[in-house]
Amino acid sequence: MSIRKRLTSTMMMVLLAIPCELLHSGDDYDPTSLVFPSFLHTMGVRKATKTHLRIYSRNKVKVRDPQGLTVVRMDSWDDPESKNDDDEVTGYGVNSGANMIVYNKSMTSLDFYGPGQRGAGKLNKPTAVVADRFGNVYVADTGNHRIVKMFNPKKKLEFVEGIGGFGSRPGLFNAPGGLAMDSNGMVYISDTGNHRIQELRPDNQIHLWFGEQGKETGQLWRPQGIAVTNGQEKWTFYKDSFIVVIDLDGQRLQKFTLDGGFIAKADLAGSGVNNARLNYIALDYYSNIWVTDSNNHCIHKFDRGLNYLCSFGRKGDDDKEFIEPRGISIYKRFGQVFIAEKESAQYYWVGVDIKDLQIKYDEKLNALTLAFFLVEPTFFSLTVTTPEGNKVESFKRARYFSGKHLLRLSPNLKQWKASNQNASFVSGDYRFELKLEATYSSLNYFSKKMKRTLTIK
Fold it and tell me: What is the side-by-side order of every strand in the sheet holding 226-230?
């Protein structure tokens, strides 16, 4: 099966979707920090609705309060002799109101854990799920005050045991609401009702916990969404090691060391984000932090230092719009982003976007200056057409990271150097053509192009 066909099958199963008509909002709204996958990779499959789930389940399963989700590449699906199956992933989604986990047991079929379950294996208002490549799956069984361990050898999700819950030692977990897993199989648990983070080892022993209860910075108050990186993952650029936690009833985002030392917090109000209700977190290849906000119907993006980069989405059911986004998961290798919302799920690729672009002539320096803000590591190309009609390629796929940038061009329209300022700029119109490309799978399928004109008198 070709890569394109496999990606199509993957999205059909992970998002529970069938091809649907592409919609257009009819205005200039078109953010590109996330972009639609190539049509050839998805055949138009990029959004799933409650109707699609009913079709796949033969009307036996309904969307009832979807929550967390996770996507993982399983070893049991891998053909070591071929790289053609490297994009075949397994997705697990929490259908909380139905006490159910929805997952794809192959590239062409779905299965459901929960319906008909009795006894120890029955879930009660689950909220979060994490999984590893070996088939280990953990669920925050919030209503039962426990963590449920499951196993998926290849196609069938099986109950293994419950950790905590009624009858366990008092107060082990109190309504746990968030899960994250590092590359060593350590599971980090937002023990919401106990205002702390606990760590569960692969042998199911509680290894440590941290969290001073309180509402001050560096303390924890009802932690929920959580994400972790331990610096040992294969698909991570910076080899970072930290935990990011949503707490204060979805109002705050804080960053800690793996043993609980406070590092930083995000100032949402200072970034112009008001009335936030943060839910779940995902990290990408560059340790950027993506957070869903159900009140503002969007996704917020921060860099690894918790500096605000941008927000993506607005309220609605059209292109690049959401209704109460909840769970989010990113397959870091290819920059694939999966988002669950109130009654559907969406699929994107990490794209690129630019803000605050300003082009000026600095007479004192005898230079053209370009100032801009990037929301994602980007391959940046720039072509300048002179008043005489000559085209000069000033930059070709130069790699710039997210944040503020200031570029200066000499009269030869190359990077500014004090040693080559003898020439002067010709009077007239300079036409700038910018091309931005992502460093993920969208590289060869999407680019953001912009044109600007500057007149020098």
Answer: 226-230, 241-247, 252-256, 262-266
